[in-house]
Amino acid sequence: MSYIELACFSINTLKIKCLLLLLVLPFSLFGQTTQYIEEIHTSRVKQDSVFQYDEKSPLAPEAKATFNGLAYFPIDEAYRVKAKFVPTPQEGIFQMPTTTDHLPDYKKYGELHFQLQGQPLKLSVYQNQELIKQPKYHTYLFIPFTDATTGQETYATGRYLDFSIPHSQDSVWLDFNKAYNPYCAYGDGYSCPIPPKENRLPVRIEAGVKTYEKQKLEAAGGMQKQESIAEFPGGLAALLKFMNSQFVMPPLARKAGVNGTVEFSFVVNQDGSLDEFQITKPLRADVDVAVLHAARQMPKWKPAMQNGKPVRFKYTMPFRIK
Question: Is residue 1 part of a domain?
């Protein structure tokens, strides 16, 4: 399934006034959707948006033009496991090998001990000695790893997980659904740490992002997706232009300098019609009404497809007012 974030960028000279985040949830699964699943969906939406629109995207311009989102394993809570964090304060600083000649200084900060697929496993956690000089990375820790999917479904060098210095050592979450590729998987000119041998897992971690090369090979091989999200007529840029043209800030709200985010949802039916509009996270009553009014003006969408058939999809859309 593909997920799309519509961000505030100038696309085809359009002047964007707000941030529109489109979180696509399959309506057929909505009744089973948990807060955790929505969290992972949102994370993937943001990641795909960075790859397609951000100036720091690792993708080349020609790759951005045809980018349809990263390939991910299905979200599986079995790969979100409880782990015991064991500090390793006696470890010294070492130089971690990378895909280039660059050798950044790291320190092994601790170990995560956990059970997965019936096996006791362990991952070492590292601290970049240069990054910790920056306040925002003061508690940041890094987990590079490989597993039995490495070089097959996932990137040949390995994948990464972000971590933070835990408040408790007894029980912390280790979430492989958030595993991501180094930028070296997508383009040249990057220096990416190579996971140490001690972080080679003997099991298949079928969670997180898949290899980008494999995604390109599948597309080149002519394989057609059986699933697709609903689409606004004219695509993403047209949707951004429409929402900005239809939304009118209420005079009293404008005078009061209101800003923030209104979150609303709606359903795209099998015939592309829209209904079930509702506010899910209000900002201010008059602003909420104005946002819903703008959204209700949308024309029919191209319906979402699943297994070759149109299906109902429920969308949650945070609309940030600046």
Answer: no
